[in-house]
Amino acid sequence: MSGMQAKEQAGDMAEKRIEEKIAQFPICEYAFIRPEEIPFSEKVRYICRTECPRYGTSWACPPAVGTLEECRERCLAFEKGFIFTTVSEGADLENMDAMLAMRGGHEKITRRIVEIFRENYEEVQAFSTESCAICETCSYPDAPCRHPDYMLPSVEGQGILVTELAERNGMTFLNGSNVVTWFSLILYAGEKAAL
Which domain does 169 fall in, by range? Predict the structure, then answer.
């Protein structure tokens, strides 16, 4: 077995350990990906800038997260990625505030899965739904983020075209009327030695 094959096999073992641990969560779909697969689009940033009320108000969103190219470079610095979904049923898709209030469960699951990745990898960066809502009022831009290790920046805020990434990996984006599909993306590198 070559050194490269041994490294790939070890990586597969880490991913198998992760799959075993995440089985306890109500994940709808997931896929292991390569960061090179992630589609970035200035169109996503345009929507952030012109339609999202959180634009320019949070460390988790543009422009605080950097330019589209900076976000792309940051993501491509990782070796691997993991995208997953959960769903919320009974959502009023016409009421954005009510719909966003339902994302708390997904955020809790994301944080717990991030911890599983941190047990297995040296470097982990997670992106999740919409904009960070840890603090009632974000410190942006007057002071540093109060919780940089706990904050989950927005997937879309990075300029990532989530619908295309989902389609490339055979994942369902729309799961029916009154159902919200929440996406999170975890990027990781530097596998830790198995205990």
Answer: 3-191
